[in-house]
Design goal:
Elements lengths: L1 E6 L7 H11 L5 E4 L3 E6 L6 H8 L4 E6 L7 E4 L10 H9 L2 H12 L5 H10 L8 H8 L7 H10 L3 E9 H11 L3 E5 L1 E4 L2 E6 L6 H15 L6 E5 L5 H6 L2 E5 L3 H4 L4 E3 L6 H5 L7
Parallel strand pairs: 5-6, 5-10, 6-7, 10-11, 11-12
Antiparallel strand pairs: 1-3, 1-4, 2-3, 8-9
Helix pairs in contact: 3-4, 4-5
Length: 285
């Protein structure tokens, strides 16, 4: 048994569209999880024309197919940059260092899978050499904003007994703050090396990238007595693909095109509360 999920921006989901898709998929009774925003219906098997239908409604809503059994997860594993926050921290540091445009281009290409993540990170961090460490606090205070729905997502996961881990290819100087703001149980990231109050232009080794995120998933679930099938993972970049594919529910959130193409679950219209709708929670926040 599967669940066909439809999620749009608040007020953007038309009942006629939902009914039309239900008929096209041969689905059961429609359940509205949030009025004019999120709806779902059961289907016995994957609709034969699902990919075509998804493409046809892509401008109006996110159409996803979720296994009905075990859809509520016991652990959240989240990327940070452009996922739990709306920025890429290294890009914001680069703006302060006067090399913003160059670094943003490298970041975009790396997140789209065009460049090796580790090499691209080393190259970008080198451009930050000499930047005062104190700039990090200023960036956090003036440039970093939380992705909408993050606190609601973590609050519900915790209320249901879930564990929440933030695992980022970014930096501990940021993940520690973001984790504290949102209530993550733990966080992992790379370390910006500092000497005499200035960034050295180097990053601590080993570098946390795609494989390290998969390893974090394996290590944390083993410690908690969980299986990867019980994990909800969310991210937006190519370095997230490993954990998204390994988790029981891997969601590409406002992701790069090449990342979306490799993920079964995609959210482009909703915010982080869409991850609650995908698990079948009704809006009560």
């Amino acid at each position: 048994m599967f669940i066909v999920s439809l999620i749009a921006r608040p007020g953007g989901l038309d009942a006629a569209l939902v009914e039309s898709l239900r008929n096209a998929c041969g689905g059961g009774t429609v359940d509205w999880l949030a009025p004019d925003e999120a709806a779902e219906f059961p289907v016995a098997t994957c609709p034969a024309e699902f990919d075509r239908l998804r493409a046809e409604v892509a401008d109006m809503a996110d159409l996803n197919l979720v296994a009905a059994e075990g859809r509520r997860k016991r652990m959240l594993l989240a990327d940070m940059d452009s996922t739990m926050i709306q920025q890429e921290c290294i890009d914001e540091l680069a703006e302060e260092a006067g090399v913003g445009a160059h670094v943003k281009d490298i970041t975009a290409r790396a997140m789209n899978g065009e460049l090796d993540f580790e090499g691209a990170l080393i190259e970008r961090v080198a451009l930050l050499k000499g930047l005062p460490e104190a700039v990090i606090d200023r960036v956090v205070e003036t440039r970093i904003t939380l992705m909408p729905g993050g606190r609601t997502l973590l609050d519900r996961m915790h209320a249901e007994g879930g564990h929440c881990a933030l695992v980022s290819g970014g930096f501990t100087a940021f993940t520690g703050r973001v984790a504290a703001l949102l209530g993550f149980d733990e966080n992992q990231a790379n370390t910006l090396l500092v000497e005499d109050g200035l960034l050295t232009g180097e990053v601590g080794r080993p570098i946390l990238g795609r494989e390290a995120k998969v390893q974090a998933l394996e290590t944390i679930t083993a410690r908690l007595g969980l299986t990867p099938a019980e994990v909800l993972a969310v991210g937006d970049g190519a370095n997230d693909l490993g954990m998204l594919g390994r988790a029981g529910m891997g969601v590409a959130l406002h992701a790069k095109p090449s990342v979306q193409a490799q993920c079964e679950l995609r959210v482009n219209h909703g915010d982080l509360t869409a991850l609650l709708y995908l698990q079948g929670y009704m809006r009560d926040w």
